[in-house]
From TrEMBL:
All copies of domain Enoyl reductase (ER), residue ranges: 22-347
Keyword entries, A-Z: Oxidoreductase
A Pfam family assignment: ADH_zinc_N
GO terms of molecular function: oxidoreductase activity, acting on the CH-CH group of donors, NAD or NADP as acceptor
Keyword Acetylation among UniProt keywords: no
Protein name as catalogued: Enoyl reductase (ER) domain-containing protein
The keyword Oxidoreductase appears for this protein: yes
UniProt-listed InterPro entries: ADH-like_C, ADH_N_2, ER, GroES-like_sf, MDR_fam, NAD(P)-bd_dom_sf
Entries under SUPFAM superfamilies matching the protein: GroES-like, NAD(P)-binding Rossmann-fold domains
SMART domains, per database record: PKS_ER (SM00829)
Length: 359
């Protein structure tokens, strides 16, 4: 089916680097002439944009595992879209794709990092969440790094978010006790009643790490074997003393510290807790391993096979929080970083013809 291609597109550019928390004036929404695909390129109409915590790091100047966004550049991000014009032999008009299309209504691509989607297999938005990068991250971090064994206890922070919701349910499916930490009573109720966590502690209601630890100790009577680290901060401080001998800590993220930017050793305000953490790693013989999901692309196929089967037969549930329209992306991103989302945070940039929903 041919589509009329508009004369202009919109994008969200980085206008200023955040000083601490992200604010709306860090972003600028711009209208540009619609780009035309050159030889070997295709044009994508973006349908779903993914908003992810890693984008906070890309807004800083300091070097991380990937290059940041320059001022004036389009914000980076994964998105799902439809090919609407193509000079690429491998991508035809009408095909649905997921790739690094950025915060924009349209994007040109040469096919690098792009995967085709079959809307008959799963809703195409899931390629950004439960069947995409966050789900894959949960699966690799839990299985390959966490090495779970039935009967053990797992704790995960941001338990009802894109990664955490999958970690908890996979842990339960493998016979572990799963204890979540999440922000607010509604999220905690959802974690236990809908996702099947054994318990969930509200970190926002705990005044400090000591209070959080007391609740976690009660919820984990046999100690903690796997701490799936998503958040750092108070939760990490609460869990460390509860770790069992030979425990494992897959270090996936540390969202509570992202606003510190690139502060170095000794530059972070507050008391130094490193000696206590380091001592526990030694005394309890913990295995602590950081990982970045793009090093584990070889594990995508087994992840997708297992998790799509679990979704099909109702053993794994997931939620999406949807903001409407590209212009809503900055506010939705800021809200997500503060816990405004349940499950995967998405932006519906344009109509999803596979859902029959109007934007
Ligand atoms: N290593 C990798 O390759 C990789 C890949 C994907 C994601 N990650 C990391 O995994 C973590 C979760 O990512 P996601 O995409 O699933 O995001 P998400 O959990 O869907 O959304 C972020 C959540 O973080 C929680 N949060 C915010 N500030 C917090 C704080 N100060 N203390 C505790 N929790 C806080 C909020 O949940 P509450 O309301 O429950 O507090 C918020 O909903 C992030 O750290 C992310 O960077 C790493």
């Amino acid at each position: 089916m041919t589509q009329t291609i508009p004369a202009t597109m919109r994008r969200v550019a980085l206008a200023a680097r955040p000083k601490g928390a992200v604010t709306p004036d860090c972003f600028r929404i711009e209208e540009l002439p619609m780009p035309q695909p050159g030889p070997g390129q295709f044009l994508v109409r973006v349908i779903w944009l993914s908003l992810d915590p890693y984008m906070r790091g890309r807004m800083d100047e300091s070097k991380s595992y990937a290059k940041g966004v320059e001022i004036g550049e389009t914000m980076q991000g994964g998105a799902v879209g439809e090919v609407i014009a193509s000079n690429h032999p491998g991508f035809a008009v009408g095909e649905f794709v997921v790739g690094p299309f950025g915060w924009a209504t349209h994007a040109l691509s040469d096919g690098e990092g792009v995967r085709k989607l079959d809307p008959a297999r799963a809703p195409i938005s899931t390629a950004l969440g439960v069947l995409g990068m966050p789900g894959h991250t949960a699966w690799v971090g839990l299985n390959d790094i966490g090495q779970p064994r039935a009967g053990e206890t797992l704790v995960v922070g941001a338990a009802t978010g894109a990664v955490g919701q999958v970690v908890g349910q996979l842990a339960k499916a493998r016979g572990l006790r799963a204890v979540g930490v999440a922000g607010g009573p509604d999220k905690c109720r959802y974690a236990v009643e809908e996702l099947g966590f054994d318990a969930c502690i509200d970190h926002r209601a705990a005044p400090d790490a000591k209070a959080l630890r007391a609740q976690l100790a009660e919820a984990c009577p046999d100690g903690v074997d796997i701490y799936y680290e998503n958040v750092g901060g108070k939760t990490l401080e609460a869990v460390i003393p509860l770790m069992n001998v030979h425990g494992r800590i897959p270090v996936c993220g540390m969202i509570s510290w992202y606003d510190l930017g690139g502060l170095g050793m000794g530059e972070v305000p507050g008391p130094d807790r490193l000696p206590r953490v380091w001592r526990t790693i030694l005394v309890q013989r913990l295995k602590v391993q950081g990982f970045i999901i793009f090093d584990h692309n070889d594990r995508f196929a087994p992840f997708e096979e297992e998790v799509s089967a679990m979704i099909r037969d109702g053993r794994l549930k997931y939620r999406e929080t949807i903001a409407e329209g590209l212009d809503a992306a900055p506010e939705a991103f800021i809200a997500m970083l503060k816990g405004g989302n349940l499950g995967k945070q998405l932006v519906r940039v344009s109509d999803d013809p596979t859902r029959g929903v109007k934007a």
